[in-house]
Amino acid sequence: MLYINCPHCGMRSQNEFSYGGDASVKRPELNKEVSDQEWDDFVYNRKSLRGKHLELWQHISGCRQWIKVERDTATHEIFRTFKADEEVA
Amino acid sequence: MQKYSIFNLVKNAFSNHQNWDLAWKDPTPKEEYDVVIIGGGGHGLATAYYLAKEHNITKVAIIEKGWIGGGNVGRNTTIIRSNYMHDENGLFSEFGMDLWRRMSQDLNYNVMFSPRGIINLAHSDAQMNAYARRGNSMRLNGIDAVLLNRQQVKEIIPMADFSDNVRFPIFGGLMQPSAGTARHDAVAWGYARQADSMGVDIIQNCEVIGFDVSAGKINGIRTSRGNIKAKKVGLCVAGSTNILAEKLNMTLPIETHLLQACVSEPVKPVLDNVVTFGAGHFYVSQSDKGEMVMGGDLDGYNSYAQRGNLPTLQHVLTEGIAMMPFLSKLKMLRTWGGIMDMSMDGSPIIDKTHIEGLYLNCGWCYGGFKATPASGWTFAHTIAQDRVHELNAGYSLNRFSTGHLIDEKGLGTKTWIS
Question: Domain A3-26+36-83 belongs to what topology?
Fold first, then answer.
């Protein structure tokens, strides 16, 4: 069982959350010409590496906010959590 | 190579079975190979076997970080089927079914292929209609499919819950009678033994550290046991695909996720077929030892852990008990996890890459084991001929950017969508 520290609600069990994937993916700027490759990278291509991974979770059975979680994909250790609009240094 | 036969079994009994040849050797890596296959799992071993058998390419090495057959080919629920609707998947898998039927003779190794049939249960009229459509598509591709009504299912699987007061009543099901199971380890060992006998070097405990690429062409690999030159390199590393892709500066439409399976204590025969629950994601069969072999959903987040988390297991088994209430009385014997190369449309990739001489085989999601022979056969063809075979033409890497996705079930990395 993972325990995720929701920045809005505090420490809660994994059962309250749903997963939203890689948080480092950036949507292409829409006010300029977007190439197929850029869309491809945004929609499909993922690094999905072993080790530290910044990812989105939604506190679906809690405050329903999207949050960012920094987690190790091999050990499942959770290092830090952030609000969705927080910049991650 | 010694042939495995009743005659040799009797003969070796006189020497207390001490004089059997090793099934495969433990060679030191040579300086150069025509083809290097990275990954000594089912697909890698099958690829090497078909390279030697079908294309006469025997200067081949299989590079395996751990030991052969220690990854997903030893961690699956051994289901073999070709009950797909789309042509790409159906024709590819049915080609594989032919190879499965001949495999024990072909490899001179008993893989215990047991075509016991698979039944996908339906729990609504709409689902019955969808199964009728899929069944018809399968039959058009020459795959056997039988639509069963509730009564017919009840005769085949009396242990399922047919009471009136259930959340997901069984309306019927779609059966592929020729589907079944096989002994997974034997598949890996059988391919390894034959490949080895034809001159393939199986190099275990050898980790790939990097690639030697120059001017858009692959020249070899760097490993923990030294550099190896190679004209062609094939990647067959399932859940580790992204790790090697990063070393090649490639980003792929693949995420690595964890899939769990479990077996119960052994019980007397109660289930003759492979059965899947239609209102969720749960599948079960009974092994020859009597254990109920069960599996279901991904854990749901990127993982390289090779071990599972309880919430998913609980969710999966809740579905199992809804389908077959007697499962709740069984004790769990073992649970385990494997790391899956989940592609974004749920279908695999067997293709060339933008690097000359580098070939990619990944994206097997939930269905890697049953694809072992067809994957090896088509990947060997792709490597040997430097072009894809018509059977794997649909499994292209660029289908994501061109929009030619194979949305069989839409079951890629985003399990919550389905």
Answer: Folate-binding fold (3.30.2270)
